[in-house]
Design a protein that fits this description.
alpha/beta; Gyrase A, domain 2; Isoleucyl-tRNA Synthetase, Domain 1; five-stranded parallel beta sheet; three-stranded antiparallel beta sheet
Length: about 550
């Protein structure tokens, strides 16, 4: 993992300031951070810094004069081809054309590792995402959670973090009992018994299918048991079916986990020790963060910056909703020792964040170690019309239905296309269009076109290509775009913002299509042999970078389309 060019340039500019100060060309002052950015206009170079304008007050000189001084004291590395001062005080830096050309070979040498950076330096980080209640198949509301969580995990792994993915299975509490009772009712109904679904139960049509399935597999043996004994047994069958459905749908999206964590285990004693939940409540009691009132046990979140207190043990002795969060996060940070944790939550859970930060303080943990990726809901459209109900059942629209209609690649790309905090529409019609209107098609077609070029090259000895010939404007522009991937990975990881990958993928595809339009790659003319081999190396480098970008987004890189 090499250092980012903008970071290296920032250090070299800082050294230029120090040399200018030592020579008396600039007065002594504490040097602030040196920003190095990509300018919006290509005419301003590949990188630029406004540092001279930021130093004007400290140096008591005009910004343009400071910029000119820094240019004189700047020691350019081999990758910089030009440095200039520009009014009112910018320093513009251009990459060396020869160095740029050589990067086609450098990218090919790194292969799939190209784009990786060392931002995380091995930090152990857990991403917990989806974690939908196992009371039915996943619906489309979970799709954005899955895509965001999985992709940010991919990006963080590429940025040098030691990442673990986890699904928290809510298999305890009153909602599970309501689910179990609903499964039992549908099972009994499938066998002709008069067993109503409870008022607080689950009415989805999927449960009718599940009840019929259990009846076919097990017959009436559960009906022969006392009802109170049969409900938990048949409920376990329902839970297994729900988890089977959830695993299958997520696998179809390319999502997998290192661990599926059972909520129940938080309340199970491990002899001779009490349960993890009881141990954590004891810690909170000793810290003075628990009080009893109204017959219940409360966590005093307001004493630690939370917006309201939370019930952790109800008056009936059962754990409250917040109880599991307390024990679960203690397990993450203290028992398993993660350095950082990212919880991916829907916007409807945003109000819960201050109480979670209060919990971290109560456990004497740095609240900054617990992060939240909060995402807004998605509206499904088909053309101009909002899609509200399943075409199959008239019920909830399941994730599987959307996957069957548009495929996992389109679903992932569209759900990544905007920042998590933006509400978004997913147009099912656009997602399957085979035209440049559809960004998924546009990006993947670029990869398929690259694969076609390389197939057409046949047995040409690409390794003999001389990349120093890659000096035309379209070739150099493509090389510049390829070299952006490490910076995009760094930004997406640092900001926990995987949507940057979709923008980059579209820009890269656009630059490649432009290169293909302007530069003939494979020529049968013997006089063009050298440039053909050099361009094939460049095309292969583009294949590597575009495939890596697609894979980071959890998408396939098709060879044909």
């Amino acid at each position: 993992m090499k250092r980012l060019l903008n970071e290296d340039l920032a250090d070299r500019l800082r050294q230029a300031i120090e040399r200018a100060q030592a020579a008396g060309a600039l007065p002594a002052f504490d040097i602030p951070a040196v920003p190095v950015e990509r300018p919006k206009q290509a005419a301003h170079g590949d990188y630029a810094t406004p540092i001279a304008m930021q130093l004007a007050r400290l140096a008591r000189q005009a910004p343009i004069k400071i910029a000119e001084t820094l240019v004189r004291y700047f020691e350019a590395p081999d990758y910089v081809g030009g440095v200039e001062a520009a009014a009112p005080g910018y320093i513009n830096l251009s990459l060396s054309p020869q160095w740029l050309a050589a990067q086609a070979d450098a990218i090919r040498a790194q292969g799939e590792a190209f784009g990786s950076v060392d931002l995380g330096a091995g930090t152990r980080l857990q991403v917990e995402f989806v974690s939908a209640n196992p009371t039915g198949p996943l619906h489309t509301g979970s799709a954005r959670n899955a895509v965001l969580g999985d992709t940010v995990a991919n990006v963080l792994a590429a940025a040098g973090y030691d990442v673990e993915r986890e699904y928290y299975v809510n298999d305890a509490g009153s909602r599970m009992h309501a689910f179990y009772t609903s499964v039992y009712a549908r099972y009994a109904q499938a066998l002709g018994a008069d067993e109503p679904v409870p008022e607080d139960g689950y009415l989805g049509t999927y449960l009718i299918e599940w009840g019929r399935r259990i009846a076919e597999e097990e017959g009436d043996r559960y009906l022969l048991l006392p009802r109170e004994d049969a409900i938990p047994l048949i409920g376990e069958r329902g839970l297994a079916i729900a988890l089977e459905s959830i695993r299958s749908d997520l696998a179809a999206m390319g999502v997998s986990y290192n661990r599926w964590f059972s909520e129940r285990t938080l309340y199970e004693p491990v002899a001779p020790a009490p349960s993890l939940f009881d141990r954590v409540v004891g810690i909170l009691r000793r810290g003075g963060y628990v009080e009893e009132r109204e017959g219940a046990v409360w966590f005093k979140a307001t004493a630690l910056g939370g917006d309201k207190d939370e019930v952790i043990i109800r008056s009936n002795g059962q754990p409250g909703y917040f109880a599991s969060d307390i024990a679960y996060h203690y397990d993450k940070f203290v028992v398993r020792g993660f350095d950082r944790v990212i919880d991916v939550w829907g916007a409807d859970h945003q109000g819960h964040v201050p109480r979670m930060k209060a919990l971290m303080r109560a456990l004497e943990l740095d609240p900054e170690r617990l992060e939240f990726m909060i995402y807004q809901l998605v509206t499904l459209r088909r053309g101009g019309e909002i899609v509200r109900l399943s075409k199959r059942t008239g019920d909830i629209i399941t994730l599987r239905e959307v996957l069957d209609e548009i495929g996992p690649d389109a679903l992932r790309f569209f759900l990544l296309a905007r920042s998590a905090d933006s509400q978004m529409d997913l147009d099912l019609e656009l997602a399957v269009k085979q035209s440049d209107e559809n960004p998924v098609y546009y990006v993947q077609y670029a990869h398929a076109r690259i694969a076609s070029i390389l197939r057409r090259a046949g047995d040409l000895p690409i390794e003999e290509g001389d990349v120093s010939l890659l000096v035309s404007e379209p070739e150099q522009n493509l090389l510049r775009q390829l070299l952006r991937l490490p910076e995009v990975v760094h930004q997406a990881a640092a900001e926990r913002a995987p949507h940057h990958l979709t923008y980059y993928a579209q820009e890269l595809a656009g630059v490649f299509h432009g290169f293909y339009r302007d530069c003939r790659v494979v020529s049968s003319d013997p006089a063009d042999r050298e440039i053909t081999l050099a361009r094939l190396k460049l095309v292969d480098a583009a294949r590597i970078v575009l495939a890596r970008t697609l894979h980071l987004m959890g998408m396939s890189a098709p060879e044909t389309m």
